[in-house]
Structures are given as structure tokens and as C-alpha cells.
Specification:
The protein has 445 residues and is mainly α. 84% of the residues lie in helices and 0% in strands. The protein has 14 helices and no strands. It is globular, with a radius of gyration of 21 Å.
């Protein structure tokens, strides 16, 4: 059901819109965690290391898919808020066509460059074959990844966070079951984990895309919409390209970090692979709530109701802080038990690695949560220069400090680069929001 985010009490509207999105994140991360958990438990430490190692490269694909999602979502949100439905349909068709072409190019490059990328990040020989196998199967399913992300972005842009939640819940539960069957019962190893993701993501994608076009067909417009518009493509690209660059930069940074971590051996790699799943559960939750803030901001910009954005921002921060408290308490009190779920047999080095990361990084979830909600407003207002500046500064600091501090403190120095980058990036995001510079980028249709 489409929902107008420009009416009603801003905090209440944002919370109701965000709760299904948050539920979607939980299910999405559950099946991401299941990949590593089942691989580690039933296929061994090397399989866990291989899945975690390949995951860093798949984040490059996710960067492009996420950028297409955001570019379409922000523009469609503004058009939906302005009630310009014919132009909105053109934006949807334009995104699908352009993204399909981009996806085909990335798929070809993925198969061609996969081995080189794995060598580039210093993948140990004992996990190289499994890493490449997982990566190739994942690459084959890129079209599903792209179109599903675009579909969820469109649902959110029209104020519907419930429908993508239903699709993702179904996909996640099915993925976990198939992971178990393929890896434990059929003994397919890493290939079983990858094929389970491929199949479940494919089914969800097809269902989501069919639903989107049925939903669009039900919206009556007097004008006949175009299937592709060069001008609309440029409008979407102005948001999508910086988002892709930002996410790609994050992915490349994570690959560089992974290459540093790989130098410490497969046990440290396994510990990092496990703890980064727990960390990503939190960060992805925050990012999704930031995306909700973007949709809320964009719809209200389209309706020319800027006063509602400040109220929504307060509601978003409260949501983030209420989420931080139980997560930090859980990770500190049950961290070892959670990490142990990913491991077939007790590994002292892997467990110590994970707990070091949690102890250093988790207290700063309040900081990065503030940044991601603030970034949501910048992105929803199409203030992409400010958004990219804050994000790039954060990542540049984390990567450069990881190099410097690891030389002096070992792997602990890598973990300490996280809170430093987050803190400085957050201060810059807050400056852009408080100064009002984001309002200069406003564009309505």
C-alpha cells in the first residue's frame, strides 16, 4: 500500500514507515549471517574464511545495486510527493532499462576479473578455490540483486515499506533452510551457500518486479509516460552516480582492510568474518533507517513541506539511540557466544579477534548512527557533494589509519581506526546539516 509521508505527525509517520524496513534488515542480515554460520559449522573454518573473504568483493556489486536503488528512490520520492505520477513512471522505466545494461557489463567483468581480485586482496591458497567458486555463483545472480534492490527502492519511495518486508522475510527464511539442506545434508560446501542465495534472491526479485509494475499500472495518469527519458536518466544519475561512487569507495576500502587482515592468517580471517557479520547487522540497520530518512525528506521536499524534515530528524535520532542500547549490551555480555555460533570448533584466536573488535568498535554505534541518519537528509535533498565528502573522509581515515596503526599495534590497530573515522565523519555530516548548506541543493519537479 502506497503511503504519503507528507501528512501526519512527522515522528509518528517516520516510525511507522521505518519499522517494516528495520524488520527487512533483520531478515536480510539473518540469511547473510546464516551463510557464514552454516559454512563455519558444517564445512569448517576455511569455508567460513572463504565466504567472508568473497563477501568483501561482492560489496562492490552491492555498491552499484545500492546506488541504482538510491538514485531511483530519491527521484521517485520527490515525484510521488509532488503527485506527478506520469513523470514518476518514466523514472521507474528509465531506471530499470539503464540498470539492466549496467548489470550485464558488471556480470561480464565479474567473471573476467574475479581471480585477479582475489589475488589482489592476498587470498590464502587454502581458501582461494572456495572463494572463487562462491564469487562466480554470486556474480551469475547479479541481475536478481539489481532488480530486487530497484524494486525495494521504488516501494519505499511510494511510502510502502510493508511489501518489501514480506518478500524479504520469505526469501530469508527460505535461504536459511536451503543453506542447511545444501551444506549439511547434501554436503555441497561453499557452493551450497552460494546457490541457496542465488535461488532465493531470484524468486524474490521476480515477485517484487511483477508487483511493482502491477502497482504502477493501478495509478491512473492522464498523460502517456515515456519508457526512457534521457533527461530523467541524467536526473537519476546525479543522485545514483555519487551513491555508487560512495558505496564503491566503501567497498574498495573494505577490500583494502581485508587485505591487511588476511596477512594475519586464516584464524584471524575467520574471527573477522564472524564479527563483521554482527557489525554489519547493526550498520545495515542504521543505513536502512537512514534510507527511510531519505525517502521522508524527498517526499516532503516534493510537497514543499520543509518544516517537517527537522521534526522527522529528531524522530530518526531517537530510533537510532533506542536501537543502540540493547545491541551494545548484547554484544558485550554475549559476544563470545554469538561468535562461537559461526565456528565448527573452538578457535581461541578467532574468538579473541572478534571480541577485540566488539570491545573497541561497539561503543561508537551511537556516533555512526547519528551520521547515517544525518546523511539520510543530505541524500534525500540531493545534496550529494556534502554526503560524499562526509563519507569519503570517514573511509579515508579508517583505511589510512588501519595501515599506520596495524604497523604499531598489530590487528588491534585496525579495529581502532573504525571509531576515529566514524567520529570525524559524523562531525562533518552534522556541520552540513546544522549549517543548512543541504538546502541549496534542493530540487523539486
Amino acid at each position: 500500500m502506497n503511503k504519503d509521508l507528507t501528512v501526519g505527525r512527522p515522528e509518528t509517520v517516520l516510525w511507522k514507515f521505518s519499522i517494516p524496513l528495520f524488520g527487512s534488515v533483520i531478515f536480510q542480515q539473518l540469511y547473510n549471517i546464516a551463510d557464514s554460520l552454516i559454512a563455519g559449522k558444517f564445512a569448517g573454518e576455511n569455508a567460513l574464511a572463504a565466504v567472508g573473504n568473497s563477501y568483501e568483493i561482492t560489496l562492490i556489486y552491492l555498491a552499484f545495486a545500492f546506488g541504482c536503488n538510491i538514485g531511483c528512490s530519491v527521484i521517485v520520492s520527490q515525484l510521488f510527493g509532488a503527485k506527478k505520477y506520469a513523470v514518476m513512471k518514466t523514472a521507474v522505466w528509465t531506471t530499470f532499462i539503464a540498470s539492466g545494461v549496467l548489470c550485464l557489463v558488471l556480470t561480464a567483468l565479474g567473471f573476467l576479473l574475479g581471480p585477479s581480485l582475489l589475488h589482489l586482496i592476498n587470498t590464502p591458497e587454502n581458501v582461494f578455490a572456495d572463494s572463487l567458486l562462491y564469487l562466480n555463483i554470486y556474480t551469475a545472480g547479479l541481475i536478481f540483486l539489481f532488480f530486487y534492490n530497484i524494486a525495494t527502492g521504488i516501494f519505499s519511495a511510494m511510502g510502502d515499506s510493508r511489501t518489501p518486508f514480506i518478500f524479504l522475510a520469505f526469501s530469508s527464511v527460505a535461504n536459511i533452510i536451503m543453506d542447511y539442506v545444501f551444506v549439511k545434508n547434501l554436503e555441497m560446501g561453499v557452493a551450497g551457500v552460494a546457490w541457496a542465495t542465488f535461488i532465493c534472491q531470484g524468486i524474490s526479485c521476480v515477485l517484487a518486479v511483477i508487483t511493482i509494475f502491477k502497482r504502477l499500472a493501478s495509478i491512473h495518469t492522464e498523460k502517456v509516460h515515456q519508457k526512457f527519458s534521457r533527461q530523467m536518466f541524467m536526473n537519476i544519475a546525479k543522485v545514483a552516480v555519487p551513491s555508487i561512487l560512495q558505496q564503491s569507495f566503501v567497498s574498495v576500502g573494505n577490500i583494502i582492510l581485508q587485505s591487511i587482515i588476511n596477512q594475519y592468517g586464516s584464524s584471524v580471517m575467520a574471527g573477522y568474518s564472524a564479527v563483521i557479520k554482527l557489525n554489519n547487522l547493526v550498520i545495515t540497520s542504521f543505513t536502512t533507517l537512514g534510507n527511510a530518512m531519505s525517502n521522508f525528506t524527498a517526499q516532503n521536499i516534493g510537497a514543499n513541506k520543509l518544516e517537517r524534515i527537522k521534526q522527522g530528524y529528531r524522530g530518526g535520532l531517537i530510533m537510532i539511540y533506542l536501537l543502540c542500547v540493547p545491541v551494545i549490551v548484547l554484544y558485550f555480555t554475549m559476544g563470545k557466544a554469538l561468535l562461537g555460533m559461526f565456528m565448527k570448533e573452538e578457535s581461541t584466536v578467532a574468538l579473541e579477534t572478534g571480541m577485540q573488535f566488539i570491545t573497541i568498535v561497539a561503543p561508537f554505534y551511537f556516533v555512526v548512527g547519528t551520521k547515517l541518519i544525518t546523511d539520510g537528509i543530505l541524500r534525500g535533498a540531493s545534496a550529494m557533494k556534502q554526503f560524499m565528502a562526509a563519507t569519503f573522509l570517514d573511509l579515508i581515515l579508517r583505511v589510512s589509519l588501519a595501515f599506520i596503526l596495524s604497523g604499531k599495534m598489530g590487528v588491534v590497530g585496525i579495529w581502532r581506526s573504525w571509531p576515529i573515522g566514524w567520529t570525524i565523519g559524523t562531525l562533518l555530516s552534522l556541520y552540513f546539516y546544522i549549517s543548512g548548506s543541504w538546502k541549496k541543493a534542493l530540487k523539486t519537479f
